[in-house]
Amino acid sequence: MISSITYICLFLLNFHFTILPFNSFSFHAKLTEKDLLIGQDSLILTENFENDFSWKKNSIGYPQFAEDHAFEVVDSPVFSGKRSGKFELRYGDKMATKNGGPRAEVLFPKQDHFERWYSFAVFFPSIGWERDRDDELISQWHSGKGTPTLALRVISGNLKLRIGYDSQIPSSQWSYYDFGNIPKDQWNEFVFHVVHSYGKDGLVEVWRNGEKLVTHNGPNMYLEGDLPRWKIGIYKSTWRKRKTDVDLRVIYFDNIKLANQNADLNLMMSREVL
């Protein structure tokens, strides 16, 4: 006869493997990528905001929210399904972290491999993201050392990818890829394939809505730096020191994915790319 303790253990084991594919953020933030791999098509984690667990205090995506308005799950606008994630940052918000500037971001787990795939759908509202001559980040790969060497930024109303690296001297070298004016009031899906490296084998590839925008070969991280941690949301360093042309930033994300080196473009897109 099976003991009651055995029944409990079997139940918990079944619960764990049933829930994980649908709620990959339901674990403690100190876990690593190896703890997260959901066993489906190389995906490490996904977030589509269709449940009630998105970025709570014990989630695997570490929330950096200082105010109640910094993040909420909403039912409009949506990219797919019935919900999306709304990020909001206001001038004068408290600091969410000890270093840097004001932010409403989510920090993902430390990577255990130099090659990764990332994707998300993003929506810039006309009311909430007016033009600012200052810049801000909506996605960054940060090694914990100085400014991020890889980041998707908004600069004077244009969406730009900035890629840098350490040279043999202390300064960094930067390359910019301009994606044009921010597309307002519409969803755009971005896919990033990155071989993180401070050597010649580094690679950054970017697609928007299935169209390739960037192939950048060469170094893209700090010399002897740690593998970066991915972040999405809003980061605006200037607001720590002074006000800019605007005092509000609102942005929406949906269908966020992180996958390992065995992924491909079709896995990361919401529709098949021929």
TrEMBL record:
It comes from the Bacteria. It comes from Cyclobacterium marinum (strain ATCC 25205 / DSM 745 / LMG 13164 / NCIMB 1802) (Flectobacillus marinus). Pfam families: Polysacc_lyase. Gene3D superfamilies: 2.60.120.200. InterPro entries: Polysacc_lyase. This is Polysaccharide lyase-like protein.
